[in-house]
Records
---
Amino acid sequence: MTAALAVFAAGSPGSANACSVIIVKSADLKPYRDAMRGFEDASQCDVREVLSGDADQMKNMHLSSNDIVVAIGTTAFKKVKALKNQAIVYVMVISSEADRDQSPNISGVSMDIASATVLKSIKEVIPSAKKVGLLYDPRYTLPYVNEAIQAARLAGIDLTAEKVQDPSGIMAALNEMHDGMDVLWMLPDPTVVSEETVDYLLRYSIHHNIPIFTFSKKYVEMGAVASLDMDPYDMGAQAADIVNRIAKGEGNGDGIRVHPRAARLSINVKAAEKMGLKIRDAVLKKVGKIE
């Protein structure tokens, strides 16, 4: 444990019934602010906030064993995950970082929407989709892909997952699963999705008339057909629910980890039309449309 964390962790014991939360936020960004609002609206505890980049605040915050630490953002999580005497709850932390530490005192809300939910939305937008392809780097998204394979089997969907360990291998991987692929499912995998790869994936989609279903509305605005986005505010509320449960004695010695329960579907109507897809009116009425 670093010297800063050692000071951060030291503190006088709190009362046995206290419900006190220290929120460590990575930065003052809108998604983090939204998550914090959701947390505060749903929390039943006293809340104090610290910015992870503020060394003085970090050093001057004294924790008792009754305090629960909430990390908003990956940087904040990295700063506090070494704490062993407090329950830690994370939100808005990249999955590859959160999944790396399975300590029993760590709980949190994943940034990955449950694979079964995503597959259900793919079928809702494109009912004819029977064969779905995805690219992934095992270093970052293997647990999620394994979950997706099981979910696809239960949903009667033919899911082909191709490993990519370097962006230069994307073209070959796409060629491996090209035949008969109805949809390309874009995961939040840093090897697959980056500035240098997104344009190529979108061009591939247009050239081969294979719609992309992705995880962020910004890619729908760039030409993907649809996305299912997480809701930072509701994720903050979920984190508060976990904290409330821990404060009542649930999950002690065994972390509580959940997927986001709320998701926002967005559809690029023009991109869909260009690919000959007719999105049902019932779907369009309840989603965010990008004309």
---
Amino acid sequence: MARPEPVVAPISAARNRLWLPRVALASCVRAGLLRDTRGLALSDWQRFTHLPAGGFCAITWWFEGEIEAAPPGVAVDLATPRRRLAGPHPLGRPVLLSGPHTQPTVYWSPGSSHALMLVLMPDALHAMTGVATDRLVNGLVDATTVLPADWVAMCDAVLRAADDDARLALIDDFLTPRWRAARPRHGLAAQHVGDWVQAMAMRAATSTAGRSLRQMERRIKRWAGLSLREAKALSRAERAFVLGMAAHRAGPVNWAEMAGDLGYADQSHLCRVTRRITGYAPEELRRLVDTDERMWAYRLWA
């Protein structure tokens, strides 16, 4: 496989933006990721977007440009066959709904693009819409064919909004009353995904609908799309990434020590899990996040 050309990140860092919701939505919305490459001179390699496996759902709006998806689980270069994504949306722009992913994903834009990805907790999406998130695992569908009518209207309004700030305000105002009505009585408003996994497990275990282990596992699978074990594994891997990036700012990272602190059997175990979720070993991932435009989403997350 051809080796990727060197790229200089953060060439478009000023055009990438992380949006965090108001506190009332902290247990519903993980974040919003905005990407705008209009007017930027990017090489073909810099038009890739790499995303890790993760236990979240997402609604993605493409306001300008096209998007193509590479096959999951394979090494990707410019020659890799890709699938064009463009749902039959009445406004002519795709609005995509994705479920939890157990493998890293790679997308490519053939030209300038402008997009917003709203990352949602899967149990929150299920509670507010009734969408079966377990049927969305590793999936990507036209959101307008799956979501309820009021959500489709919101998606259309976001497409029509004047700018990104107006879009984010619209989403915030739309979600707040719906989450207030749908959220569990003992929900946990926390931005740390590990807290969310623990809270979901506690809620499943104490539900009056049935408290056997099998019933609890089925309930979590229906809410989150993944088993509790899978959700915990992804949570721990995200924790390792965030701590690793933070430690790197202070000097070389002791991955063996971090593996032990996070409960991995050893450094090799941490490396295997990180490769499965991101496609890269921890130190290589850290280097790419610092130096490669394709990893822009990882930089925002860190």
